[in-house]
Design goal:
about 375 residues, four-stranded antiparallel beta sheet
């Protein structure tokens, strides 16, 4: 018996009948093993050491190799970068299948990713497989052991708090996560538990204001609880990383403009030339339009100078590049010029119905979730 209390992204009661009907239909037509992804495209997986301007170099290489990026997500955490990009051939619009071309793509991207001192840990992989992008990014960063690396910047006071204890009488390990609330938080945590080969038998999820409180009763796939102190510490590290990877660091910039060859290379080069670092990116296309989201900071991870942001907007196009989420310091400067949504990602309640539970069952993440 699974019970979810859900709201819309602004924390309001769901009243749209079409949305409610969609949730009901989604929960009633679950197809185990089915994945999401992009058909007819070539998937590129990238891993390396993050640095300012890296993304612009990656997109420049892809443009030079006649690869059009249709969809992509980029995450950074603890000085590492991971990305899953779906590309097609610019000229034919078809997936890239020529083995020599694929080899060139992999070699040049690997050369960019390794830079001067990352020869062993820079990785590229080309695949025709369809996968769930965000879950795959968790798996890539988990395999890269980003959770063991020291963050370049010291985390602030709002870092996730994770505790793990054993309930000996019942044979469970009890995991508690307390952190700032945001969308897809539950998905991120449960994906990580599953990839670590734990099964969630019971869970309680609560939100209060902008805080989230998650409690999970877990066991290994063989039915045993966590058995050692090193294992307990590893679970804590991995869950903290799972929460932090998608954290929205920096100013959110939304780019909406007609798509063209080399657009991403030009935009990210402008970021680099103006000292902006991309901490997270979501690239998508709809028809002939590019719909892209970038989270940017200054070169050392601090809030970007608002004058610098405005300068970049002037160069890319004020009407094309919108500032959608702002630190308090510069909020009042932009409030009159742009429409602001009531509530940002960190202050919304978990929208679990159509988003999380459907994905959990599609991906086979939970056996019983109540």
């Amino acid at each position: 018996m699974d019970v979810f209390h859900v709201t819309d992204l602004n924390g309001n009661k769901l009243t749209d009948e079409s949305v409610i009907n969609y949730i009901e239909q989604s929960l009633g037509t679950i197809h185990p093993g089915k994945t999401t992804g992009s058909n007819g495209l070539t998937a590129l997986e990238l891993t390396g050491t993050d640095r300012i301007g890296l993304l612009s170099e990656v997109f420049a290489v892809l443009a030079d190799l006649q690869c059009s990026v249709v969809d992509a997500k980029v995450w950074t955490h603890n000085g590492r970068i991971a990305s899953l990009m779906y590309v097609k051939d610019c000229n034919s619009g078809s997936p890239i299948e020529d083995t020599q071309h694929i080899d060139r793509i992999e070699a040049r991207l690997r050369n960019v990713l390794k830079g001067d001192n990352d020869i062993r840990s820079a990785k590229t992989m080309v695949s025709m497989a369809i996968t769930h992008t965000e879950r795959r990014l968790h798996q890539v960063m988990f395999a890269d052991r980003d959770y063991e690396r020291k963050p370049i910047l010291q985390p602030g006071g709002d870092s996730p708090v994770v505790t793990v204890q054993n309930w000996v009488e019942r044979g469970y390990s009890v995991v508690n996560v307390q952190c700032k609330d945001r969308t897809k938080l539950l998905f991120d945590v449960v994906c990580t538990l599953t990839d670590m080969e734990y099964i969630v038998f019971h869970a309680t999820i609560n939100t209060a204001g902008d805080r989230a409180y998650l409690e999970f009763y877990i066991r290994h796939t063989d039915g045993t609880p966590i058995s050692s102190e090193p294992e307990r510490q590893r679970v804590i590290q991995c869950l903290q990383a799972a929460v932090e990877r998608r954290a929205s660091e920096g100013v959110r910039l939304e780019l909406c403009t007609p798509d063209r060859q080399g657009l991403l290379a030009d935009v990210t080069r402008t970021f680099r030339e103006n000292g902006l670092n991309v901490t997270r990116a979501e690239i998508s296309t709809a028809g002939d339009m590019a719909l892209n989201v970038f989270y940017v900071t200054d070169a050392v991870g601090n809030a970007a100078d608002p004058k610098l942001i405005e300068s970049v907007r002037q160069k890319i196009g004020v009407s094309n590049l919108k500032v959608k989420e702002l630190p308090p310091l510069i909020y009042h400067q932009e409030a009159e010029r742009e429409d602001q949504t009531a509530g940002v990602a960190g202050t919304v309640l978990l929208s679990l119905g159509s988003l999380v539970k459907k994905n959990l069952y599609h991906l086979g993440l939970i056996r019983s979730y109540s």
